[in-house]
Amino acid sequence: MRRVLAVMAHPDDVDFGAAGTIALWTAQGVEVTYLMVTDGDAGGSDDGVSREEMAALRRDEQRAAAKAVGVTDVRFLGRPDGRLEAALDLRRDIARVIRQVRPDRVVTHSPERNYRVIYPSHPDHRAVGAAALDAVYPDARNPYAFPELREEGLEAWTTSEVWLSGGPVVDHRVDVTEVFDRKVAALRAHVSQIAQMDDLEGMLRGFLGAIAQEGGLPEGRLAEGFQVVSTV
Question: Is DNA-binding set as a keyword in this record (predicted)?
Answer without folding.
Answer: no
